[in-house]
Design the sequence.
């Protein structure tokens, strides 16, 4: 499942992204925002989607948008097994998957138009983890940090 978490600053892009994904046969679950509200908080939507992804981080993925992307990435990375990366271009999106096996793509809505978003999303979805020993070693170390610092 692919979870969407988008605050008011990313709201204008949400429907184009949902349609883009649907046209490619990718099922999504919307974790908000459900209406445009300039007073909403990205934290609520990022936490709701991240909790779902954390239930099965090898199978579940997410695409998150807020104004800068920073807040969504910070919240997502507070959940065990969630590896969120803020990507501003297709090359970063690809590397985030091949090197770091990210399961959440974060976009900066203030810096990303529809065409750019679709390109970044396409590359991110089509890329897969390389499985190279050095990347596996590093991800094990990330898991060790999580185990040491996260309760439960």
Sequence:
């Amino acid at each position: 499942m692919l979870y969407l978490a988008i605050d008011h600053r990313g709201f204008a892009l949400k429907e184009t992204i949902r349609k883009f994904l649907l046209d490619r046969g990718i099922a999504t679950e919307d974790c908000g925002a459900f209406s445009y509200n300039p007073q909403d908080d990205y934290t609520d939507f990022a936490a709701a989607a991240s909790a779902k992804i954390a239930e099965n981080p090898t199978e579940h993925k997410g695409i998150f948008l807020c104004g800068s992307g920073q807040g969504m990435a910070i919240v997502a990375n507070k959940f065990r097994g969630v590896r969120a990366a803020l990507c501003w271009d297709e090359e970063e999106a690809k590397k985030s998957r091949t090197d770091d096996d990210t399961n959440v793509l974060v976009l900066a809505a203030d810096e990303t138009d529809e065409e750019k978003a679709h390109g970044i999303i396409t590359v991110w979805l089509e890329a897969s983890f390389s499985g190279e020993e050095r990347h596996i070693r590093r991800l094990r170390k990330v898991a060790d940090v999580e185990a040491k610092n996260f309760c439960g």
